[in-house]
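It is worth pausing here to work through a concrete case rather than discussing structure prediction in the abstract. The textbook approach is simple: state the sequence, then state the predicted structure, then interpret. We follow exactly that order.
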Amino acid sequence: MEKGFISAVCRSPAKGMQKTDIGEAILVEGMGMEGDGHFGFEHRQVSLLSAEESEKMRQKVPDIKPGAFAENLLVRNFDLTSLKIGDRFHVGPTLLEVTQIGKECHDRCAIYRAAGDCIMPRLGIFCSVIIGGKIKIGDIVYV
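Step two, the predicted structure:
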C-alpha cells in the first residue's frame, strides 16, 4: 500500500484566490475545509496537488509558495495520478472521495503567464469529505 504525507495545508477566504499554508485545518463531512472559500461547494470541497509537481514549477517561477495553485493540500510521495473518480483514500483521520480530476481554467493565471504552464488544470484532484476531522502537515495519506 502506497503511503505519502501532507506537506502543506492551505486555505483562502474566497474562491479564485491563491491560498496560504496554515499548517492544519478541520475537514467537515460533506462540506470541505472550514474557513475556505470552497466550503460547502458540492463536489470540489477539497483540492489536492502533488508537492513534487509544485516544486518542478518552482524551478520556472521561484517565488511559488504552497497554495499558489489554489490547492488545499500539497501531498508528497503519493501518486495522485493513480486515483480515479470514485476512489476513496485517507488523509490522516479523514476519508476523501475523488469527485473530479483536473479542471477547466477560464482565464490564464499569473503562474501561467510567468511560466507558460499551470499544473492544476491537469494534475489537480478534487474531493468530497466523507469522514471529517482535523488534519495537519505530516499526516499520512493512503488508499
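Step three, interpretation. The longest strand covers residues 3-11. The first helix runs from residue 51 to 60.
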